[in-house]
Amino acid sequence: MREEIITSGRMNPKIDPYLNIWHWEIPIYLFLGGLAAGILFFAAFYTINGKEKDFPTAIEKTPLIVPFLLVIGLISLFLDLHHKLYFWRLYTTIRLESPMSWGAWVLMIVTPLSFIWAAIHLKKVFPSFKWPFPWLDIIEEFFIKYKKVIAWAMIISSLILGMYTGILLSAFNARPLWNTSILGPLFLVSGLSTGAAMNILFAKTHLEKKTFSTIDLALIGVELFLIVHLFMGLLASTQVQIDAASLFLGGSYTAAFWVLVVLMGMVIPAILEILELWKFKIPLFVPALLVIFGGILLRFIITFAGQTSRWLY
Questions:
Q1: Over 60: is that where the pLDDT of 1 sits?
Q2: Which residues contact residue 74 at a Cβ distance below 8 angstroms, ignoring those fewer than 6 apart?
């Protein structure tokens, strides 16, 4: 029989040997979903504001990778399902109280929008590209005509997608670390930050690099604010939440979280971006890569640590 340390109403300090916490599928899905949401948000935002000439990378180039990100993320999610043949049942009903239902339908909207957005910009990014059939040109012209309508749909759905990646975890009441309203905004802001970092990597003009560096700096500040409030909320709650917070405050995830996620993934990139804004010659791809690195590890560490924090009855 499984050995359990039962502490009435408190988190089990011993990791369940039957609990496989090293599944990579869910954190990869959460990261790619957040990154895709961030990229689509900026593409839609600058399109709505008529900035196509100033931000060609954010609007035309970076979104080309989003369909691939979403497909890989969906494959990761599918691989994690226990009953893979029944995934279609999520689309037979809409349950407003279910995060999984929200996520399934938002992805149903975001994924085709990302394909449409990429398709109508292929000729701008690759001038020699031609559609194999004439009727595809007619469809392309139709979507280009209603580009701003698509942008409005995309900006709303991308925000919901980014928020959903955190709400998916926070809906699990049995995991004290996850069961907080901060995770939704935190994962949304992190997704926007990694989206801004990806635009920095692809940007060719000084304006785009400087703009997204400034945006990313502000988003890192918001992330740090939310992380502080995440732990303040846990420490001000019940004993089981305090025990969950202790995983990061002297516990087994302390070094990984504060060094790899906060220091290397947020603080150092912020310092480098500040130095660049002060006219120091800093290669902006360095803080951008660190931000993306931190975004990945944030999902992995929160996902893994959350599975070790639980109630016992």
A1: no
A2: 29, 107, 111
